[in-house]
Amino acid sequence: DGPSPEAFFQSLCVDRRPLSKARSATTVLVAERMDGPSTLNDLPSLQDRLSEQGLQQFLEVYQTAGRAHSIEKAERDYRPSSAWKIKKAGWEPEVAIGYTLLTSAFKRDLGDAYVHRTHKYAASSYLIADALARQAWRLSETAPSCYAGLKGVHGLLANDSSWAVLEGEPTVGASFTTNAFIEASASSSCLRADGFYMPMNSDGRIVHHQEDTDIVHFVSEPTDYQGFHSLIPACLNADELEYDLPAPATITLRAISDAWKTDDGTPLRRRVFTVAATYMVA
Questions:
Q1: Contacts of residue 222, Cβ cutoff 8 Å, sequence gap at least 6
Q2: pLDDT (tens digit, 0 to 9) for every residue of the chain, 282 residues total?
Q3: How far, in Å, are 2, 106, 175, 181 from residue 5 at the CA level?
Q4: Model pTM greater than 0.70?
Q5: 3-state class of 208 per DSSP?
């Protein structure tokens, strides 16, 4: 059955040493794909654990996810997002690069690991959780309205089955707990009359890909005694405006609209679910 949620979370926080002890933050997932180190205590030995076979496994996973065909190309393609984190938000370079690549393609893998309480990707999960925790404590204002697709190839349901609560006829006030990290966008380019357009990285450029799906609207609120309620800025370049949400988070359905309009007044031919989030960080 695996460890309890509390024990699993504590296992991700066993060591707060910087990830620079590894040659590159991207090596964390490579080693884990080889059934390598499961906690940050093992990071100093990562250089000795990487084999050609392990690297090939990582590349195959990355290709299957529809992303870049090499770690080097991935780092180039996602450099604008990593650079924003480093220059504008004060992230450590190794953490910014590792976080950006992990969250670009492995949301479901990491979410499934949390569901099954496995330590298979503990170091990668820790990297993401710790990075978002640090940024949550630095929040000086709440995020604007952000949007994500419910279904579709890149929708919330594709990475986390907990979002199935919003299928069918959900009840306003219903709550559920997420398992996977969430990425949403505040860009007006995402909402068009015919639905939701997901910001996608294509060879280093942001393009908007149409998804056949209803839309989830995230509202952020100030921190209070119950926890954090704001999405966290992850890349505020003009063409992306990405905000992220750690897992687990409690999602509460605030409203359902069949008459939503874009900023210019254009009606959307999709249902829009307005939700609020609550989460805790270490």
A1: 142, 229, 230
A2: 444 444 433 443 333 333 333 334 444 444 444 344 444 344 333 333 333 444 444 444 445 544 444 566 777 888 899 999 999 999 988 788 878 877 887 788 778 877 877 666 676 777 788 899 999 999 999 999 999 999 988 899 999 999 999 998 899 999 999 999 999 999 988 998 888 898 888 877 888 888 889 999 999 999 999 999 999 999 999 888 999 999 999 999 999 999 998 878 888 889 999 999 999 987
A3: 9, 21, 19, 16
A4: yes
A5: strand
